[in-house]
């Protein structure tokens, strides 16, 4: 394996993993846009990831040739054995297991170690080289139980029944996980969605993930009207609270579900009243536990706080290497413009 401008390249197999630019052959670990890019020639991924790519990019841009590989199924490309193993990040997310001439490299993609009712759990694979993310690779990042954060949200709803609760979530993975956690906690009322979240929630349902009653946020009866959905839960992309769309809601309590909500300054800067520490990435302890579980003597770090993780691994006798891959770690929902319904003129949209 070597690092190229396109990303991680497997020379003997002649393919890339999560390449940042269009290539002839790509293996894609999951559907977030910092890993799944359009216009590759041939794409190998889980069936769910391919479905997510088609939903987000369109059939014509999700790979001219698409090959779905079931978890545990093996194929060979130019003498390199390839398997996909669940990564626990979002629906369809997988680690890539490569076997060649008696050596094994595992490329994790993004992953988490917590239980998630919307995707298969992470499976550690013993290997010679483990390629890991390091999004939350600082000791300050120790995620609380997600169920406890959901309890805080429900407690706030009881405390402020005259206000809507607007929760900022990524469209892929976080939205569906939060919905499933709310259902597990007993919330059986409709959960209201910004239009940018509808398509992927429908796809999850179509792929067998039950989310319960969902509804689009209604339009006001008259232009400029508001005061809607008091006492209800509304999910929207993280940037929605900065648009005129939010005026529809009844004095919304602004919430955000992210591992970054551990950083108080970040929550304050975004105007978040109720930060919910719900992450789809491994925290500090889980990163170290995972490295121990895979027993790799060498660990490569793709993105995140690679300096802290490489240092900690060195103290444990593990060789660490920072890859500095470009374009990783910023899922597009953080910064991308919202669909037209979020603009002020869309107050009358359906």
UniProtKB/TrEMBL annotation:
<dbReference type="GO" id="GO:0004527">
    <property type="term" value="F:exonuclease activity"/>
</dbReference>
<dbReference type="InterPro" id="IPR026360">
    <property type="entry name" value="Xnuc_lig_assoc"/>
</dbReference>
<feature type="compositionally biased region" description="Low complexity">
    <location>
        <begin position="336"/>
        <end position="350"/>
    </location>
</feature>
<keyword id="KW-0378">Hydrolase</keyword>
<dbReference type="InterPro" id="IPR001279">
    <property type="entry name" value="Metallo-B-lactamas"/>
</dbReference>
<dbReference type="Pfam" id="PF00753">
    <property type="entry name" value="Lactamase_B"/>
</dbReference>
<dbReference type="InterPro" id="IPR050698">
    <property type="entry name" value="MBL"/>
</dbReference>
<feature type="region of interest" description="Disordered">
    <location>
        <begin position="329"/>
        <end position="350"/>
    </location>
</feature>
<keyword id="KW-0436">Ligase</keyword>
<protein>
    <submittedName>
        <fullName>Ligase-associated DNA damage response exonuclease</fullName>
        <ecNumber>3.1.-.-</ecNumber>
    </submittedName>
</protein>
<dbReference type="InterPro" id="IPR036866">
    <property type="entry name" value="RibonucZ/Hydroxyglut_hydro"/>
</dbReference>
<feature type="domain" description="Metallo-beta-lactamase">
    <location>
        <begin position="20"/>
        <end position="149"/>
    </location>
</feature>
<keyword id="KW-0540">Nuclease</keyword>
<dbReference type="GO" id="GO:0016874">
    <property type="term" value="F:ligase activity"/>
</dbReference>
<keyword id="KW-0269">Exonuclease</keyword>
